Amino acid sequence: MSKILDTRILLGYMWRDETRKRFALGATLLYLVNATYFHFDIVSETHLALMHLDEQFGETVHLKLYPDN
User: pTM for the full model?
Assistant: First the structure.
């Protein structure tokens, strides 16, 4: 399994069903999707997760926002 996938599981964005050997969306990702309906500040909400990725992998992390979406 890749480090990116491991990180997504750790942060709750995905989960692995060991019996069926499949992955599914995790509670954190579903929370973020649901929160978009309430016009939340995605930059503030994702800041800690992005900092965690930066610290864990020592790589530059970007969050791309599209102005018309």
Answer: 0.45
Tokens representing 8? 């997504």
Tell me what pLDDT residue 58 has: 92
Q: How far apart are CA 44 and CA 31, in angstroms?
A: 14
Q: How many CB atoms lie within 10 A of CB 8?
A: 20
Which amino acid appears at position 63 of this protein? L
Q: What pLDDT does residue 1 have? A: 63
d(CA 3, CA 30): 21
Instruction: Give the position of tokens 């995790």.
Output: 26
Amino acid in the structure at residue 26:
G
Write the CB contacts of 42 (distance below 8 Å, at least 6 apart in sequence). Answer: 32, 36, 63, 65
Residue located via tokens 């997504």: 8
